Amino acid sequence: MRFRAPDWCPWRGFAGWSPAAAGLAETLDGGQSFRWQQDPDGVWTGLWGDCAAQLRLTGAGAPEWRAPQALESRVSAALPRYLGGEHNWAALADALPWRSDAHLARCLGDFRGLRLLRQPFGETLLGFLCSATKQIVQIKQMVALLADRHGAPLADDAPFRRLPTWAELAALPEKDLRACLLGFRARYIAETARFLATQPGWLDETEAAPYPVAKARLMELPGVGGKVADCVLLFGAGKLEAFPVDTWILKSLARRYGLDGWKPAQVAQFGRAHFGPSAGYAQQCLFAWERRHRRR
User: Fold this and answer.
1) Which residues contact 214 (CB under 8 A, 6 or more apart)?
2) SS3 161
3) Structure letter (DSSP) for residue 36
4) CA atoms of 267 and 201, how far apart (whole Å)
5) At residue 159, what are phi and psi to the nearest 5 degrees?
6) What backbone phi and psi angles, to 5 degrees, belong to 66?
7) Coil, helix or strand for 65?
8) So what's the pLDDT on residue 2?
9) Adjacent-strand bridge partners of 51
10) Structure confidence by residue, pLDDT tens digits, 72-83
11) Is the alpha carbon torsion for 21, 26, 28, 30 positive or negative?
12) Burial of 26 by CB count in 10 Å (0-12 exposed, 13-18 middle, 19+ buried)?
């Protein structure tokens, strides 16, 4: 996923963000988005919407970005919002109850500079409809196949392809979706695409709705349960009160907070009550910590 150097604009600094390497990695490749890859030199290459970019940390630990020359102006305008620039993450982290929650304090310290992405809403829905019972590497494979086989090129001289739109997905036979290794998820995506084709504006209305309303609307879609709805709202709509509960979070809160035997909906309610208005940010830090230490 690398261009030859002349195809890229020069590297540029990114003001207002100083992530540790672990914080950058978890932001880009920690289960929020499924279109980032890191090369052996430590450079991250990723895609979202109609954009493609590379990110890296300098030797001094400062983040830099660059884009294909054909997409430079587009990426320059879109990147700050995509990387959560609308929020003061230091203030949000400080407002979490880390002073009375030693485990949360440890998680925040291990992933300094972690941010929540603000991805295109419809694209986020597609990614998490692919996620049921799959690990991140498998979801990335499915999403890449959808883009490679059914998405349009981002520019004439840029060998990256965007994901297919929901209108384009609605026109595909289900067998073509299954050929992208979607399995039973192909039916959910096909049915959702057909629904959205008859409901123009539905995604925009859902993204703009208050959190409880938006979650209820998403859960009317095929294959969308509470966890998927919360992921879509947290990473695609910027609703920080969303608290996705998957196996990692169930185990984490059972072990660290004494919630053994609690149901996902109960754990989600606890998360929103305990961590406050930015519960979703705490969730991503807890999730990152559990995955890192489980791997070890």
Assistant:
1) 206, 207, 229, 233, 237, 239
2) strand
3) E
4) 32
5) -80, 45
6) -155, 165
7) strand
8) 45
9) 48
10) 999 999 999 999
11) positive
12) buried
Please tell me whether residue 8 adopts helix, strand or coil conformation: strand
Q: Is the pTM of this model over 0.70?
A: yes
- The answer to whether 226 and 211 are in contact (CB under 8 A) is no
Q: What sign results for the dihedral spanned by CA atoms 41, 43, 47, 52?
A: negative
CB 80 within 8 A of CB 15: no
Provide the residue type at 34 as one letter: F
- Find all residues with CB under 8 Å of 203, minimum gap 6, and list them: 121, 122, 125, 166, 196
Domains in the chain, CATH or no CATH each: 5-83 (3.30.310), 88-115+239-296 (1.10.1670.10), 121-236 (1.10.340.30)
β strands within the chain, DSSP E: 12-13, 36-38, 44-48, 51-57, 63-66, 153-155, 158-161
> Which pair of tokens denotes residue 242?
């969303």
Size of the chain, expressed as the number of residues it contains: 296
Read off the pLDDT of residues 4-56 as tens digits, 9 standing for 90 and up: 444 899 999 988 899 999 999 999 999 999 999 999 999 999 999 999 999 99
Residue 3: what pLDDT?
42
